[in-house]
Amino acid sequence: MYTIKTYIKRLSVLSLVTLFLCACTDSSSEKNLLKYVNPFIGNADNGHTFPGACLPFGLIQASPQSGNWSWRYCSGYNWDDEYMVGFAQTHLNGTGVPDLGDIRMFPFCKGTMDKDFKSRYNRESQQAIPGYYSVELTDADVKVELTATHRTAFHRYTFMQDTPARIYIDLTGGLSNKPASHPRRRAVNASMVEMPDDRTIIGANRVKAWVERNVYYVIQFNKPYKVIRQESGQDSPTRELVLEFDRKQGENIQAKIGLSTVSIEGAKASLEKENAGWNFDAIKASAGEVWNHLLSRVQVQGTEVQKTVFYTSLYHLYIQPNDITDTDGRYRGVNDSIAQSTGGAYYSTFSLWDTYRAAHPLYTILLPERVDGMVQSMIAHAKVQGYLPIWALWGKENYCMIGNHAIPVVVDAYLKGFRGFDVEEAYQAVKNSSTVNHQKSDWGIYTKYGYYPYDLIKEESVSRTLESTYDDYCVAQMAKALGKETDYASFSERAAFYKNLFDPETGLMRGKDSQGTWRTPFNPFLLSHAGTSGGDFTEGNAWQYTWHVQHDINGLIDLIGGKEKFVTKLDSLFFLDTQAENTGFVLDVTGLIGQYAHGNEPSHHVAYLYNYADRKDRTQELIRDIFDRFYLPKPDGLCGNDDCGQMSAWYIFSAMGFYPVDPISGEYVLGAPQIEKVTLSLPAGKTFTVEARNLSQKNKYVESVELNGQPLTGLTIRHQDIMNGGQLVFTMKAAMH
């Protein structure tokens, strides 16, 4: 269990930076992997992770909140804050936009609070392991403990004073990036609250922040309450409550909260089937067992620091996508209709612009039993919406980001042999998503010009073009596999549109208007972001997006002028520190090495591109540099938003020594492993082991690679090589010769 005291005791002298290290109170067995998960990693700076309690892919994320109404609080909590304002039941992991934060509760002893419901807290008292969180609120004089089941949150409050216990509840509030005074901040479009007895509160909200959605809840207490304050608003009969509980000395107050997207009856069923009693410790233990079982699919041999970062990355990867079904399989979908999941789960929280790159390919290795359900969920979404999800939250579409990167996820699953979905339905959804106009995709303009002209598409014209060409390539590959030759030819032609925006004079991708004229003046260092700054790029600049040709690296090398010039250009990316005066919101562009931005996903494959130009050594030394700088076991140890597990997935793949540069290719480009030994437990009792012999701080280069005892001389390892089981051995050395 991670505590602040263990951070302080183990201030690192290990390498290059000061690290916070933590220990688990239960260290009885190496098989207990919970001790290596530090939920505080990424809680500070812009990691936007949360430390609270959840289950893998669960609907519930019970976690503390320390603020609201800004980008700082996308997860509701920031490590650096002095105060906490309560404990809500739903949160996002590492996103760049806030939402959720439903049903915020704040316990306090009578006499400690007035009307400002916030409290300082004892940092050294904070504890967090998968499925459990606790903290002592010093002003409120309460110890708070949280655990969770898939659809319910469980709170236990220990009050330090011998006075009546009180709980403030914000029933309709939640997280938003609009200031509290903003007229379009989080809206409550409908609300109802009932108190059927003195231990229960039930209700429903129709709320809108990032998406508009329905929240149904049932709150149960282990002791009777009386309402001592009730606040209402114009749009809600009851917005806030203060409850008081009589209790004997030493008795705690417990609260259980069941949620549903469908109905109050669904929320009740969640409590009845998942959390019927009042045994907090049993629920906590069960949550830990679920997490430990899943984490145990990967066994890591390395330093304590390496295990901590690796298993925390695995933990963050498994928080989402979230299964939003009720216990009977029902869910509320994209058009508000209630549907029945045919596969037992309906997944949402798809941050696909981020996660198609490495998170979803990693699920195909580590969680193959869930992949069909994820694809089924995307197809169900497309049947209603007309095209695959772009960024789905609680079954709703928020249209955030560009391209439609559910396409590579579906195509990757099909090409890897997953068949737990209707293939023709899947292909039609994939094709429709690249032919039916929607939000940021105007296919008439795109196909007429062979790119998005910046005078017709006012924002992100270059980024939209490049992202779309990758999706086109994916459609083409599925069409080819299905024998649809006309579609294969058409989408293959579109996949080459990236060449139309390559400017040979600057050697960079550059905006072009409908007359074929390059954007002038052109500042390749100028960062831009949709909705705030105009410009031709999405959370980036020309230097960062020029490399966004994941499907045709050799074609990009030819455009730049051959391998030698390609290497020189790549070197410039990592060496140029020039910063232009930026416009609008560009806080996502972080983790900089020159112009390379590891904190933002379009850069994630770029370090591996040196391999294609015969400079594997540069890939290998850059991976070590990224590890040493940007993945540290402390609250500000992530250099950017975790983005629903994508930052974590990059770490896991790269630690093992390979990465999916082209996520649907069925191949992983070799890099340099960063951990001594990793063993993956695979279906049918198979295992795949990656070993880095002679690995050390000095030995960061690869001398040779063997797969099952045979030399591996190419650039990649195949997906099937991994799933067949076996051994991949890297022999490391100090310098390239």
List its salient traits:
alpha+beta; 10-stranded antiparallel sheet; 6-stranded mixed sheet; 25% strand; globular
Explain what you see.
The chain has 737 residues and is an alpha+beta fold. Helix content is 26%, strand content 25%. The chain contains 18 helices and 37 strands. The strands form 10 sheets. Strands 1, 4, 7, 8, 9, 10, 12, 13, 14 and 17 form a 10-stranded antiparallel beta sheet that branches. The chain has a 6-stranded mixed beta sheet with strand order 18-32-33-37-34-35. Strands 6-11-16-15 form a 4-stranded antiparallel beta sheet, with no helix packed on it. Strand 15 (226-233) and strand 16 form a beta hairpin. Helix 6 crosses helix 7, helix 7 (368-385) packs across helix 8 and helix 8 runs parallel beside helix 11. The longest helix is centred in the middle third of the chain and has 21 residues, at 461-481. The model is unreliable at 6-30 (pLDDT under 50).
CA-based shape: globular
What distance separates the N and C termini?
Answer: 45 Å
Radius of gyration: 26 Å
Low-confidence stretches: 6-30
**Biggest sheet layout:** 10 strands, antiparallel
Helix content: 25-40%
Share of residues in strands: 15-25%
Number of helices: 18
| Average residue pLDDT | 93
- Total E-strand runs: 37
Q: How would you classify the helix and strand content by structural class? A: alpha+beta
